[in-house]
Structures are given as structure tokens and as C-alpha cells.
């Protein structure tokens, strides 16, 4: 059942209801699986932005960011897209402004690297190794 919810917002009540057990039991099972390194939970990110946020970065209005990396004073955002030609959207611009990102990287399955905006670069998935070498991801 947990695998079915992979990559989604954790809802213990929904999972408990589908399994016919209490929420405390579901949370206990998740703790056991996490402790055994069988699952990994993405911990919440908190900063007082004056906005209502949940878990990873998501505003109440629906703007999202898949990954935020903070290295010293530098902030890098990452969006992962399945499409062949990613474009900017309101969510990206909201994340840039709210989180004061230095750069937003859009990772996609294509082969070409290009800029969507002075602070938004589109990178092929294979470029993550290059980013790691540049010490952004390490």
C-alpha cells in the first residue's frame, strides 16, 4: 500500500482507512520501515515566508517545487519534467520569488541544454553529474 502512495503527500488517515487500521498503527509501520532503511521520508522544509506551506515546497495556491538545495547563502530549485520541451510556468516564478532562488533548474529527458529565463535553465537528466561536480549538489 505504501508503494502505491510513492511520491505523494503523506496522508496517514487515508492509508489507515484503506488498510482497516488506526492512524497510529500506520505511522508506527512507517517508522519501522524508515528505521530499517526500506523507505525514505522526505522531511519537511520550513521557513517563515508568510505563506501556508506543506512538506516539500508547495503553497496553498498550488505552486510547487520538487527539490530545494541550500548551500551556504545560495538557493537552488529543481523541477523534474517528463515532457520533451519544458516551459516556464507561474509556479516556477512563484518559487523563484518566494524562496529567493539564485537559480532554478528544470531537469528533463531531452538532450539539449537551454535557458528559459536568466534564472531558469533547462538541463538534460545526464547533466546532474556535471552539477554535482560543480559542488551544487554535493
The sequence of SSEs as H and E is HHEEEEHEEEH
Q: Strand fraction band?
A: 15-25%
Overall 3D geometry? Answer: elongated
Largest sheet entry: 5 strands, mixed
Radius of gyration: 17 Å
Mean pLDDT over all positions? 83
- Flag low-confidence runs: none
- Estimated structural class: alpha/beta
Helix fraction by DSSP (H/I, runs of at least 4):
25-40%
Number of strands: 7
Question: How would you describe what is shown here?
Answer:
The protein is of the alpha/beta class. It folds into two domains: 3-35, no CATH class; 57-133, no CATH class. It contains four helices and seven strands. The chain has helices at residues 12-19, 23-35, 90-98, 128-133, and strands at residues 57-58, 64-65, 67-71, 74-80, 103-108, 114-117, 120-124. The strands form two sheets. It has a five-stranded mixed sheet with strand order 3-4-5-7-6, with helices on one face. The longest helix is centred in the first third of the chain and has 13 residues, at 23-35. The protein starts with 11 loop residues before the first helix and ends in a 5-residue tail after the last helix. The mean pLDDT is 83.
